Fold this sequence. Notes:
- By secondary structure, this protein is of the alpha/beta class.
- The chain is built from four helices and eight strands.
- It folds into two domains: 1-91, 2,3-Dihydroxybiphenyl 1,2-Dioxygenase, domain 1, CATH 3.10.180; 94-154, 2,3-Dihydroxybiphenyl 1,2-Dioxygenase, domain 1 (Roll).
- The strands form two sheets. The chain has a four-stranded mixed sheet with strand order 1-4-3-2, sandwiched between helices.
- The longest helix is centred in the middle third of the chain and has 12 residues, at 47-58.
Amino acid sequence: MLFGLGFIxxxxxxxxxxxxxNVASITKSENQMNxxxxxxxxxxxxxxxxxxxxxxxLNTVIEEVDMGGTQMGVxxxxxxxxxxxxxxxxxxxPTTDGVVIYLNAGKDLQPMIEKIExxxxxxxxxxxxxxxxxxxxxxxxxTEGNKLGLHSSN
Length: 154
């Protein structure tokens, strides 16, 4: 899959500079990465529904790419940070079991919780304080059946 992501970066010459930078940042070499985790793939069943959900909840644009029958939605990111990609393909199955990915909700995750519920997601753990130093978290199920978390400082 990483080879394919590199291919995407090389074929985005006609995309806007911002879009090309988002996709190209996926191909950064290991020695340039600032994080232990470099790519997170969130499996989806209904690509249009999932991209609409995440666009509305995160208030962002998603670069849509088809890679040989696998649909990918690349979320914007800064160079050297974790790349988050929505993926629809035969080997991708949404789940509430396994690893939980926590999305950065900024200073306060409450507004994002409200967007999750308004856009078809389900909050399963409301805003909860971890500690004064570590901030707050919440857990939700997205429109595809994945369990994810939110984290904020307040």
